[in-house]
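Researcher: Please translate sequence to structure tokens.
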Amino acid sequence: MDDRPRKTPRQQRSRQTVDTLLEAAAQVFSREGITATTNRIAERAGLSIGTLYQYFPNKEAMLHALAERHLLDAGQQLGAVFAQLRADEPPFDESMRAIMVVVADLHRERPALHALLHRVALRLPGELAAMQAFEDHLVAEIEFHLRRCDRGGSDPLLTARTVVHAVDAQVHRVLTRHSVRAEELTALATALIPAESSPDDESDR
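Model: Translation complete:
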């Protein structure tokens, strides 16, 4: 079964129709989870099931489209904060909080939907490659600030990867029915990071 959208909307009216369908899908999936149906989604959108099938062959294709949009939005928002942090070079704790604020904002609404997307969407080869590249980018940026601020212990790359995947699990597997707060994510992340090296530590080497 092909879970990809049937066609890419090119006209403004078609794009608006797809936006309406995906917003309805997000609402229905948030409430009903994987048991949601295309009939319920079309009803919520105020459109016919035939209109839905013009663009999406099944509900899985809608999940794929929602996941792709979320990944694109996350890349744009985090990319902006990463660029600002490299330009400003604030203290490490401030840098980490700035990143976690964006992560929390991206997942604040509809946590159940994000958990569902994490489990069942982005499974095609190209989608998996895009997700891996996105995660590698997050790891690289956090590693950069760990090294810049002399944090991360003997292996800043491993520390950065641990932080990224711990936060990912917290957002997509733990807080699936609770609002995501930047303070909690920051506390989780910083708890995994070794303290800044002290002068005594340096003299012992």
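Researcher: Any highlights?
Model: Confidence is low (pLDDT under 50) at residues 198-205.
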